[in-house]
Amino acid sequence: MDLDAGRVGRVGRRLALLIATYAHEDAGLRQLTAPAHDAEALGETLRDPDIAGFEVTTLVNQPHYEVGRAIGELCRDRRRDDLVLLYFTGHGLKDDAGRLHLAMTNTRRDNLAFTSLPAELVDRALADCMSRRQVLILDCCYGGAFPAAGGLTKSDGETHALEPFGGRGRTVLTAADASQFSFESDGELRGGTARSVFTHHLVNGLRDGTADLDGDGDITLDELYAYVHEKVVDEMPQQRPKKQADVEGQIVIARNVHWTLPAHLANSLDSPIATDRLGAVDALARLLRIGNPLVRERATAELERLAEDDSRRVSAAANEVLRSQIREPRDAEPPDTEVPHVAEEGPEPAEPSVDTPASVTAPVTAPEQPVVVPEQPAPAAAPGWTTRVDGAVRAPLIVADGVLYVCGDGGSDSDGHHLYAFDAATGEQRWRLTTDQPVRSTPVVAGGLVFAATVGGQLYAVDTLSGTVMWTYKNANRQKAAAAVAARGPWVYFVGGFYLRCFYVTDPHERWHRGVGMSDLQWVAVTADQVWCGNTGRNAYATDAVTGKKGPRLALRNSWSSPRAVTEDGLGIHIVGEHDGAVYRFEAGTGTQVWRCATLSPVRFSPVVADGRVYAGDGDGNLYAIDEATGALRWCVSAGTALNASPAVADGILYVGGMDGKLFAFDAATGVGIDHLPTGNAIQATPAVAGGLVYFGTDGGTVHAIRAIVNGSGSGSGRAAAV
């Protein structure tokens, strides 16, 4: 069975090399029992043509030169669309310089350079491999080979698991990181066979399909990691798996051979109420778009049954979906997601309508008065396109998969709040959704849905293609609460009122929720493995992204915490103080303050991280570029007008809108003003940059797309193509 069947362009081979080492010539290396069983169980699962369909090679207790030769063969003569998987279970060691080595059967700790497999060689081999779908799984740890309660640990020395293995097109999963241990079981819980806790859950999630968290019939690497992380932490709290990825799109690692219709959908299909069955038609249509062949076959069968339904509305809707499948054959790779029903808490939400047309703290003193950008004549070049929406544009614009999402704020007009989807290239409106209240936080796209949170505390999950509301969630009795949303992998995180809530992307039922503080939460952000949120009570809180357990808390002095920016590596978070005029960086894992950079005036909107710098603008019109690592101020300039939105940075150019109605462009490296475009209406929404276009909206309800500035040198010598 071809896992990539029906996914155009995905016809490459699937190859896996599994390396297990448990016997060592060096008496100082503890003999392990799990690796042989781990490799055997994982190999059997990956080799199964119904589950994963890999060509599997397994090496057990081989010397470093044999393993090196096998890795070379794995990486040699590969194509870009081949899926290459490398798995290692055994000891991880480090040399005196802190470099990571994987222990082979002939490895000697006093001669690591010539008897082990250095991580840098593995990294080099993968970097030279033509495949851009690479998976590296390390079931070893880096904290010390000691006996521990409940099992043996598999490590010597201490180093950082992910550091040596970054790479384009590569995903790295590790059983543990830093000073943690990767535990073996004692055999009692594994049917008498000692197995690694990490690999045990890895295999189970693939073999029985429980790692298919969104129920679409496929198991992606994001889902697999999320599933394994939760299971490992529940069983062994002192061990926390890690993930690092630099890939485009989702990698499907296996198929859920035990897939069945989601229970809520099955209940809707069997419901005697026609409106329930009508709702099931949309969910089945979505399964046709996103599912693998098994899922599509079942969805088609159910639609054919509904096409004979006693209700004419139900039968007409089902027949239309079936006809559309004939008219529009599957010619693009679908997103990996599945659609549930609508569920909510509290009062019934307003019925939405859809219109579909044809750690060292280094304080930095406040900077001197900034340089004022001189007025420059606006060029006459015409923008790419312009359109209008109902109401002002106040929420940040986003572009995903060729679609521009814009929120229209109708102010006091209760029927004037909308979420729009436009073709990003042409400006043609695809659909419009009426919301109960305005959306003023950033929408996010995940799993084929766009999520938008209104100021009334309602979360909408909307199909990106049709604009159909797939599910909603409403905070009970919190009509005036601010709300915001963020997403990572198979989960979406929503703050409204005093609560942080976690949902599966396609499921409106809560996975967990946590009451946070005694003031309304204003923002939410996801770091490497935590969710951070902040409230009006001057506090910011961290929560484990998987379990919902409480993490560090930050108390900002004399300041509310304002929206934030996560560092590019996901290991830090930048927060601006609304009252004390400063930008902070904290370590995401511990909450430790790394630096504080003073600003001339309070910064009230999210900073932006790009190319090693943190960019922010204040209400007096000052723009700042701060060194991401040290907190040193790189430059400060004035736009000459108040800035009520975050900037956007792309290809060395910073774009920001002003209250005087101009869109400004600055060289991001130097702060030199490049150009500006007057619009006649205040700009209070963060622009978006994608596909060579800059998108921005105004208080007058106009949405513009203009050609981005070409500035290859990043030196300020570029010139606007249309600005």
TrEMBL record:
Residues 13-241 form the Peptidase C14 caspase domain. InterPro entries: Caspase-like_dom_sf (IPR029030), EF_Hand_1_Ca_BS (IPR018247), Pept_C14_caspase (IPR011600), PQQ_b-propeller_rpt (IPR018391), PQQ_rpt_dom (IPR002372), Quinoprotein_ADH-like_sf (IPR011047), WD40/YVTN_repeat-like_dom_sf (IPR015943). Residues 325-344 have a biased composition (Basic and acidic residues). SMART domains: PQQ. Residues 384-486, 541-709 form the Pyrrolo-quinoline quinone repeat domain. One of its GO terms (biological process) is proteolysis. PROSITE patterns: EF_HAND_1. Gene3D superfamilies: 2.40.10.480, 2.40.128.630, 3.40.50.1460, YVTN repeat-like/Quinoprotein amine dehydrogenase. Residues 320-361 are annotated as: Disordered. GO terms for molecular function: cysteine-type endopeptidase activity. PANTHER family: CELL SURFACE PROTEIN (PTHR34512), OUTER MEMBRANE PROTEIN ASSEMBLY FACTOR BAMB (PTHR34512:SF30). This is Outer membrane protein assembly factor BamB, contains PQQ-like beta-propeller repeat. It comes from Actinacidiphila alni.
